[in-house]
Amino acid sequence: MEIHLQEMRKRAGLKQAEIAKRLDVKVLTYGPWERGGAMMSLEQAYNCAVFLDCSIDEIAGMPVLGPSEFRDPRDAELQDRLLDTARDFAGMSQDVAERDLPTAEGAR
């Protein structure tokens, strides 16, 4: 996995020393993270993402997914079934209402 930490840092307009200070680590600790020579903890990756205003996925070089791309493909089928059921129920309710309610003429 290719780390894109340097790219994200430069995009934010920060120098290694600046982000290292913000992360409360030494530049000698931070530099190898950018080069992929050392692994950071999940907490450190999260802190980097917060300071760099990006996601951990972006730092890791993963494509950024929109919310719809995280959905389970079965959700669409379930949603369709629920909508069909709601439409059927609404149609049945309308039939019942038309049958059981007095008409305007009968109400007089």
UniProtKB/TrEMBL annotation:
Gene3D superfamilies, per database record: lambda repressor-like DNA-binding domains (1.10.260.40)
Source domain of life: Bacteria
Annotated ranges, domain HTH cro/C1-type: 5-59
InterPro entries with a match to the protein in the record: Cro/C1-type_HTH, Lambda_DNA-bd_dom_sf
Name of the molecule in the record: Helix-turn-helix transcriptional regulator
Originating organism: Thermophilibacter gallinarum
